[in-house]
């Protein structure tokens, strides 16, 4: 093994340690930290980010990457070694465009703005959040200006989450979805009252069921935690230390889906090959690929009839008062009910896409400067009415509902819907490979599915670009048609040409 390669790997491990330590501080900030810790926490995160960034963009890493060109070419494309050099070169060239100072400033601003967002959302006060958003957006524009891009400035922020993807490609996928989703929502929307409505579901019981699901899907207790937070997410500091988060409302059972969703993210991180630990390859291939896995477990598995044939008796037993008189069919129908609603994370599978398309369009307009922040809530509400047919009574249920913009994560939202699209492409392949899958799910057996996903996706981490990985798994690029077929067969609506 080349000495230069060992040296590169050693340096990258240090950078990775700084980044994962920052991720843990972030986890702590959102799960454990008393709110008054926020100011100092922002400084701590900025320091870690500055150190990680400085160490990563160092000239010595560039020199090692140059020395390693022949080594990379002598290895197989699929090998850990060739992938590490190839992916690191791409990351390094990109990171070199951004001054460490700007990188640290963005981290600090994000941490501070997140605290401001929590309060603004609670009070439903856009005015309280606007100055923070102003600063975040200004920093994002400076960030975009660091790059010598051609065409759409949105390409730059999209690339941070979906390497290699262009805004035009997303637009094409979303235009196709939009024309179908509008029809589908109109046909499938249901006024049926949920059997869950009016029930009371004690938090501790929900937590027990969530834990049971996570472990049934494949987590052993010594590898993960499941904690409560405001805006659920999954963080990891190692493949052997996965932090799932969730939230509970005693008036409904959405926490079960949140648990399955975050578990999907966690299984992906947990499933990365141990040989990639403490390298920049120790993560999912992209945000959309990540989301394809959370959605696969949450929706394709977790809202299916076979799944509820297995799990409903347990849930019914846990909440005999609320669900004793509700049969399986009615319960299953209720967790798949299509009804326009305000909050994206609680949206059904048919309306969800419209929530994302709305954000994707607004983000582009904000970055391009054609929409001013003063007009953002009105623009949000008007488009929400147009796409989903309902009024937004307060900003807490509209423009303030998501944490992403506080963190400067412009370009992130579209990957959620791309994840939905990809999840069905992958699911079709898994079904072909595992003929008994439906029966296994009905018995609460998920090992074969997890094994297949592990083999074809999880273990590779970031070795391949999302395009390369998708090509390997499904034999082609992103395609909205399988997802549309899935929705139409699920909601029993006519298939438009
Ligand atoms: Zn997710």
Description:
The termini are far apart. The mean pLDDT is 95. The chain is built from 22 helices and three strands. A three-stranded mixed sheet has the order 1-3-2. 64% of the residues lie in helices and 3% in strands. The protein folds into two domains: 2-148, no CATH class; 167-496, Neurolysin, domain 3, CATH 1.10.1370.30. The chain is mainly alpha-helical. Bound molecules: zinc ion.
CATH class of the largest domain: Mainly Alpha
Q: Name the average pLDDT.
A: 95
The amount of helix comes to 55-70%
Total discrete domains = 2
CATH arch. level architecture of the largest domain: Orthogonal Bundle
Q: Would you tell me which CATH topology of the largest domain applies?
A: Neurolysin, domain 3
Q: What gap, in angstroms, lies between the N and C termini?
A: 56 Å
Spatial sequence of strands, sheet with the most strands: 1-3-2
Overall shape = globular
List the helices and strands and how they pair.
Elements: H1 3-31, H2 38-56, H3 59-67, H4 69-74, H5 80-95, H6 100-123, H7 126-145, H8 154-161, H9 167-188, H10 203-217, E1 224-228, E2 234-238, E3 241-246, H11 254-270, H12 287-301, H13 305-318, H14 320-323, H15 328-334, H16 349-368, H17 376-388, H18 413-433, H19 437-442, H20 447-456, H21 466-474, H22 480-491
Parallel strand pairs: 1-3
Antiparallel strand pairs: 2-3
Gist?
The chain is mostly helical and 497 residues long.
Which characteristics define this entry?
22 helices; 2 domains; mainly alpha; Neurolysin, domain 3; 497 residues; 3-stranded mixed sheet
